[in-house]
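Case study 2.
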Amino acid sequence: MKFFKIIFTVLIFALTLIDASAQIIINGRNPRRYNSSGPSHGVSLSYGNIFWVDGKTVPLKGSSASGFPMGDPFAIEKMNIAYGIILGYEKALSEKFAIKATFSTSKLITGLSARADLVTADESRFTQLGFYSRYTLTKEPKHRIQFQWLAGPEIIYVKKDVLVQDYAEDNGTPGPYRQDISIVEGAIVTGLGISCRISNAFSLFSDGMLGISLPGKGLKVTNSGFGLKYSW
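Prediction:
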């Protein structure tokens, strides 16, 4: 609960900072406020997936007695994926540049669950905060179809909670083994997005970003799937 309180506080602070200070654009030596006939705020909802390779994972050497002992020759254990709802808030700074914050928390399917030689019960969770800059690549801002370039940091909190049944190493006595660990990491990602305006207020979008997680030096992929954005 303490972690989620910190996450909520950071998110509120970030959104307040974006809204309060991101309206002034420097044009030469004379600052001016950004005034546009288009919307300057947006909220979004999507159902996407987050793929995370845990670079610090130490593979389990044993297996479940009812499985086929094989270890983890393909490093499946490091590969984790979460599916869930992603909430977003966006603030336009100019016709082509915007800042976006996102929040997602969902069930995590860890790499342990993918091992054929382990019988597992996976109750893991994955929580993520993302802060991105969004630059529109399409020259004409009035076009219905827009392409964007995105980049920025992410903060991830992982609660790995996996129960392995009848686990044993080196012909030892089988017994339950529980992996119960918490991981906090950062990530740097970049990628492309596409949006299609369906009315003055609503648009469909899809974002895909790839990068690395730190300090674990793992792979990080964030995919929004297809989402809906409301702008005003």
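The longest strand covers residues 145-168.
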